Amino acid sequence: MIHGSCLCGVVRFAIERAVGPFELCHCPRCRKASGSAFVAGLGARVEDFHLLSGAELIRTYEAPVRERPPAYRVAFCARCGSPVPDPVPGATWFEIPAGLLDDEPGTCPDKHIFVECKSPWFRIADDLPQLTRRQIIESRRSQSGGPA
Ligand SMILES: [Zn+2]
Ligand SMILES: [Zn+2]
Predict the structure, then answer these.
(1) Sequence ranges of the domains in the chain
(2) What is the pLDDT of residues 98-112, one digit of tens each?
(3) pTM
(4) If you measure from the C-alpha of residue 147 to the centroid of ligand 2, how many angstroms do you get, rounded to a whole number?
(5) If one looks up domain 2-142 in CATH, what number appears?
(6) How far is the CA of 137 from the centre of ligand 2 (A)?
(7) How close is the Cα of 29 to the center of ligand 2, in Å?
């Protein structure tokens, strides 16, 4: 089990495994939601996810849809404000904010995404692939059955 928790420690969860992808998203909404240069999102299967405590503190916010659903959705702890994982009902796959993890997930980020909207003050200094929004849409279209 790979455990994670929010800043105050009330929301605790575990995943049985990380399936990926493990993406660093530089889109403006991820930057605002995190207050940082990017969100590190680790892909997990909903069936591998266990919420251990704090369900009563989880709140969600959906930003207005810009182009097409689904809306950009964030879930957070009402006590401490940390982002927390909260799978959308009916989904099979979702992303865990990787900064919440207390255990080693056994995998590392595999790419940067939405690099065309990257913060001007942040310099990508690793060798990971850098995908634009257009490239992400094209690659997801070609790998049917994968995370959308
Ligand atoms: Zn909390
Ligand atoms: Zn994003």
Answers:
(1) 2-142
(2) 999 999 999 999 999
(3) 0.91
(4) 14
(5) 2.170.150.70
(6) 13
(7) 6
